[in-house]
Write the structure tokens for this entry.
Amino acid sequence: MSKVPNIIPITDLRQDAASVLRRVRASREPVFITQRGRAAAVMMSTEEYERSEHDKELLHLLARGEKDISEGKTIELEAVLAEARALLKEG
């Protein structure tokens, strides 16, 4: 069952921004800001934003890897391991 999103009008945000920010940090859930009854922005904690960006980057890398595999752009495991060993010896 999906959660009901936190939605507040921009006027509420203007009136009590500090409280809304505390709620975002405490709940770790985004708050959707509306303006004239329509979605205008999303407020989320810095930690959740960074996690979201990290997850997005991982998905991008996985998609790129899938594309490379489908195009036959692959490297033998032994070559990858040899390169990794060489990099570890340098560092």
